Amino acid sequence: MLSAVIFDFDGIIVDTEPLHYRSFQTILEPLGLGYPWDEYVSRYMGFDDRDAFAEAFHAAGKALAPAELDELIQRKAQVFQQVISGGVTPYPGVTELIRGLAGSLPLALCSGALLSDITPILSQFSLENSFSIIVTADDVAASKPDPASYVLAVTRLQSRFPAQGIVPSHCLAIEDTPAGIASAQGAGIPVLAVTNSYPAPDLHAADRVVASLEGLDRDRLAELFNP
Fold it and tell me: pTM (2 decimals)?
């Protein structure tokens, strides 16, 4: 039985990756650490801000002090808020799926983004009350593909819904990146991958791969899901 659904955010609910990329470059290019979009996709996508900045400095052979990292994260968050203020567009079918599931299944959000990046966008889509649990980069020390965020999401779901008998193998993660798939599966959670950010061959490790969330509902997810 499918007992809970855990959604990724970037690349599943909204296409914020180009917006994150633009925000990173605004900060990094003046430091001589900018990089092209294809490198972002191949190397940085799936990282939280902390690990993305750390990797950019590591790739350039430069040291990064903890205080400097904190400042970079804060500056990038400010830039990102400016970028999204003009409005963003959800992926086809995702808001309908979330609204259809909310109230009938426990829903969680598990993202490498900051909570401050997420809540304004959920509000734009009127989804701010749809998720019982939200786990973000603010809550864990390691970003995807580390399983920590998904482990925490399941732990919080279990605490919030003790009578539901929630276990990782009866949850479903909806992801769009190899790092996200590895993170969820590392926590023992089956994965439905969507080809929003990567082609299907790159998502082969997922339990199922679909081209879109359009037309999916609880019954269809149950058909796709075989714990």
Answer: 0.83
